[in-house]
Design goal:
By secondary structure, the protein is of the alpha+beta class. It is 43% helix and 19% strand. Strand 5 and strand 6 form a beta hairpin. The protein is elongated and about 100 Å long.
C-alpha cells in the first residue's frame, strides 16, 4: 500500500535527520507523498492507523506548503472519525446469506440507527466503529449467538454514481465483487458517444483513478473491491463533444476523398503528356 511505503519512508527520513549533528531542522521530503496518499482509503484498520500517522506528520512538516498541510490536517480528522465511527451509516445495505436459514438469506438488509444491522430471529448487531473488512466477522458473531456454527456470508453493497455516456446514468447499489464492466452494463452499457478510454473515478473533488488505470482494470477483470471503490464514488464516462465529432468527420472526409484527388492528379499529368 502507498501509505505503508510512504509512512516507512517518512519515519526513516526523520530518524536519519535526527542523527545528523549539523542538521537544525528535518530534511525536507518531497511533497509527492502527501499528494499520492490523498484519495487512497485503506479498508484495513492497521493501514488506516498508519495513514493517520502519516497525515499527522505531514500536517506538521515545514517541507510542505500551507495548502498541503491544511489538506493533511483535514484528512487526519477524517481518518480519526472513521476509526472511531466505522464505515457504516443508516441506510447502507448489506447482503447476508446464512446457509440453511432462508429467513436470514436476503438480497440485502438496511442498516438501522446505531448503526446496527437487525436480522430476523437474531436481533440487533452493533456496527458502531466497524470497518468494512470487519463487518462479516461482526455479523457472523451476531448470528452465532442464536445459530451456533452457522456458515455466514455478508457483503456490503456499494452505492456508486455513474455519470456521462451510459444508457441509464444515476446511482446503483452493487457488490464489491463486481467487475468494472459489470458496473457499466448495470447502467445500461455505454452509449454511442461514450469515450471509455477517458473514464475516471472521482471521490469528492479528487480523481482517484484515471483512464489508463481503468482500462487496465477492464482488461484484467479487476473487481470494485480490488480498485477500492467506496460508497459515494462517481464513475464518470465522458462523451464525445460536437468538436470531437466534427474532427472525426474531417478525418473521414480526408481519407475518403484523398484517392479521388490522387486519381484526378494522375489524369491531369497524363493529359499534359507527363509519364
Amino acid at each position: 500500500m502507498i501509505t505503508t511505503r510512504w509512512g516507512g519512508w517518512l519515519a526513516g527520513a526523520l530518524c536519519l535527520c535526527a542523527g545528523l549533528a549539523s542538521a537544525q531542522q528535518p530534511a525536507a521530503p518531497s511533497p509527492q507523498p502527501v499528494e499520492q496518499a490523498r484519495g487512497v482509503t485503506p479498508t484495513v484498520r492497521e493501514q488506516l492507523q498508519q495513514q493517520l500517522v502519516f497525515y499527522q506528520n505531514a500536517a506538521q512538516s515545514p517541507a510542505y506548503s500551507e495548502a498541503l498541510r491544511a489538506e493533511a490536517r483535514q484528512d487526519s480528522v477524517q481518518a480519526r472519525a472513521r476509526l472511531r465511527e466505522g464505515d457504516f451509516k443508516v441506510g447502507d445495505r448489506i447482503s447476508v446469506v446464512v446457509e440453511q436459514q432462508p429467513t436470514l438469506s436476503s438480497d440485502s438488509f438496511a442498516v438501522s440507527a446505531g448503526p446496527a444491522l437487525i436480522l430476523p430471529g437474531v436481533g440487533s448487531i452493533n456496527l458502531a466503529g466497524v470497518l468494512v473488512d470487519e463487518m462479516e466477522s461482526a455479523v457472523r458473531m451476531g448470528v452465532s449467538r442464536v445459530y451456533r456454527g452457522a456458515v455466514v456470508r455478508a457483503e456490503r453493497l456499494v452505492r456508486i454514481q455513474i455519470e456521462g455516456g451510459v444508457a441509464r446514468p444515476g446511482f446503483l447499489s452493487v457488490r464489491g465483487t463486481w467487475r468494472l464492466d459489470d458496473l457499466i452494463q448495470a447502467a445500461g452499457g455505454p452509449n454511442t458517444t461514450a469515450q471509455l478510454s477517458q473514464m475516471r473515478l472521482e471521490r469528492g473533488k479528487a480523481v482517484v483513478l484515471g483512464g489508463d488505470s481503468l482500462q487496465t482494470a477492464l482488461r484484467t477483470a479487476r473487481t470494485l473491491n480490488d480498485m477500492q471503490f467506496l460508497d459515494g464514488d462517481r464513475l464518470v464516462v465522458p462523451v464525445a463533444t460536437p468538436a470531437d465529432a466534427e474532427s472525426r468527420l474531417r478525418v473521414l472526409y480526408f481519407v475518403t476523398t484523398l484517392p479521388v484527388a490522387i486519381i484526378g492528379l494522375i489524369n491531369i499529368f497524363r493529359g499534359n503528356g507527363v509519364r
